[in-house]
Design a protein that fits this description.
Length: 122
């Protein structure tokens, strides 16, 4: 059974930083791309970042480019999202996802974590 467990969310002031982690189990981690999505109250889930199986390819939403960094450690079966210069509009539940390709399309990912709350105060 594939499981994705996010951690690292919390409350932070605008301009601060957080590092999210997503620990995967149940299948060979290095064979799958990983993605981060987020969903704010009353809004649809949106793409944040994705990373290829090897970690060489990374992709970002325009809204987070230059502030967020996605990375992975295949030896630890973990993907990370380093979030710097946080803004109140980054407030959302953040989800990690596993799939065949590092795409912006949520439907391509076949497993999802339960989410972790990130709240940025102004």
């Amino acid at each position: 059974q594939v499981q994705l467990v996010e951690s690292g969310g919390g409350l932070v002031q605008a301009g601060g930083s957080l590092r999210l982690s997503c620990a995967a189990s149940g299948r060979t981690f290095s064979r799958y791309a990983m993605g981060w999505f987020r969903q704010a109250p009353g809004k649809e889930r949106e793409f944040v970042a994705a990373i290829s199986r090897s970690g060489v390819g990374t992709y970002y939403a325009d809204s987070v480019k230059g502030r967020f960094t996605i990375s992975r450690d295949n030896a630890k079966n973990t993907v990370y999202l380093q979030m710097n210069s946080l803004k109140p509009e980054d407030t959302a539940v953040y989800y990690c996802a596993s799939g065949q390709w590092p795409t912006i399309t949520a439907g391509v990912y076949d497993y999802w974590g339960q989410g972790t709350q990130v709240t940025v105060s102004s």
